[in-house]
Amino acid sequence: MTDLWMPGAARHPLGNTAAMNSGPARAVWHITSNARDWTFTNELGWFTGGGTDVAPHLLWDPFTGEIAQFFPADSRALALQNAGTVKTNRTGAYCIQIETVFTAGETVDGKRYATVRDTPCKDLDRIMAWLRSLGISDVWPGGAPTAFARDTVSMDTWLNRGGHYGHHQIPGNTHVDPGPMPDLFTATPGSDPGSGPNTSPAPSEIARYQVTVNGLQYGYGAHGDHVTKVGQALVAKGFGRHYKVGPSPDRSDADTLNYSDYQVSLGYTGTAPHQDADGVPGPTTLKQLLGSLPAAPASAPAPSPASACPPFPGRQCFVLGAHNDYALQLQKWLDKGGWGPKYQVGPSRTMTAVDLAKVKALQQHYLKDLGPADGLTGPKTWLYAWQVANGLRKK
User: Fold this and answer.
1) What is the pLDDT of residue 395?
2) Sheet with 67-69: strands ordered across
3) If you ran DSSP here, which 8-state letter would residue 279 be given?
4) How far apart are CA 265 and CA 269, in angstroms?
5) What is the DSSP string of 91-153?
6) pLDDT given at position 34
7) Long-range contact list for 257-260, CB < 8 A, 24+ apart?
8) Nearest-CA neighbor of 45 among 68, 78, 79?
9) Residue 388: in which H helix or E strand, if any?
10) Which residue in 101, 144, 198, 357 has its CB near the most CB atoms, within 10 A?
11) Which residues pair with 166 in a beta bridge?
12) Collapsing DSSP states into helix, strand and coil, what is residue 41?
């Protein structure tokens, strides 16, 4: 289920909501940009009073962990300036804007803090968990902020790449915030993101699914000489830092993390499960690593029907307004399976309300154990849609 209001955040709805445009989901980080002695209380008063016309989605105090929300996730906020005719506040299926109660160089309890990265970053992990639930990828398309300076991304990047952005990177805007940020993507529940990077992600953040390439299983729990060979190749190329002993025939989290490092080195992004750099091998990166794809032994059993289903590409591909080939594939499966309302024109590469209704119909029939049907595609929905479309599961 997707929560349009962040769980645990104090709700202060301002009304004045407006629909988002299509495209990948993203988040934009801001800080308080002047020297006024802001506190969470008086900044909350500003955004619910005289500052409603520039309000973000979230207000976050990195010292106390207090969080307030002004707009639901599926509405635009008002903290960005337009870039000509491009309404930057509406870019993407979601464009979550987070205002951090912080001014560079401020003093709190007698200690001076130069950047957000230096603060305790209390409850940052809660914000990140919510952003991930909305399909926002763990990536900075314009690079992680390193200074208080303008570093605008291209309009093409802004319109077509999801993930995290600094206010200083958005076309049409002139601010230089947020400045250096903590490592958002290794923040885990119970950790202190301001104390430095955590190089050991929680198990729930590590990919633990399998894929089949040339008849051989890869991914967490896979076993065989082919697993050892991949590990050895990673070590040979300098991607073995997560091993405590070394490669073995049994695929572990260490193998996944090392392979993720290798994927990132090739330019892939998104380290959360079912994203491009999540550490689960695919035929393209395997061939680059090994020189050629290993063939399955002649005695290897044929892949099961379920294993032939294409790997789940990630929830962000199926949110309302998402535009990609995976959305088109899902639409074709749902149409072939006869789920939900009929298309007026036919499947397209953009997820529409009709597509969400089709997904919801499938979930209501098969996936009642997962809770109320919400029309949002996860790994099990993806698999069932494929199975029904291919006659492997009766309606």
Assistant:
1) 63
2) 10-11, 67-69, 58-60, 95-100, 26-31, 163-166
3) S
4) 9
5) -SS-EEEEEES--TTEEETTEEE-SGGGS--TTHHHHHHHHHHTT--S--TT----SSS--PP
6) 64
7) 257/201, 257/206, 258/231, 258/234, 259/230, 259/234, 259/285, 260/207
8) 68
9) helix 379-389
10) 101
11) 29
12) helix
Q: Do 113 and 119 touch, CB atoms closer than 8 A?
A: yes
- Using a 10 angstrom Cβ sphere, with 0-12 exposed, 13-18 middle and 19 or more buried, the burial of residue 165 is buried
Query: Do 95 and 77 contact (CB within 8 A), yes or no?
Result: yes
Q: What is the pTM of this model?
A: 0.52
Q: Which two tokens stand for residue 270?
A: 């998104």
pLDDT tens column, 53-81: 999 999 999 999 999 999 999 999 999 99
Angle between helices 353-366 and 379-389 in degrees, nearest 10: 90
CA nearest to 211, candidates 234, 200, 225, 227 = 227
Name the nearest CA neighbour of 71 among 9, 8, 12, 132: 12
Strands (E), 293-335: none
Residues of 256-288 as b/e, b for ≥16 C-beta within 10 angstroms? bbbbbbbbbeeebbbbbbbbbbbbbbeeebbee
Cβ atoms of 185 and 277 closer than 8 Å: no
Q: What is the pLDDT of residues 174-213, one digit of tens each?
A: 999 999 999 888 643 333 333 333 344 555 568 877 788 8
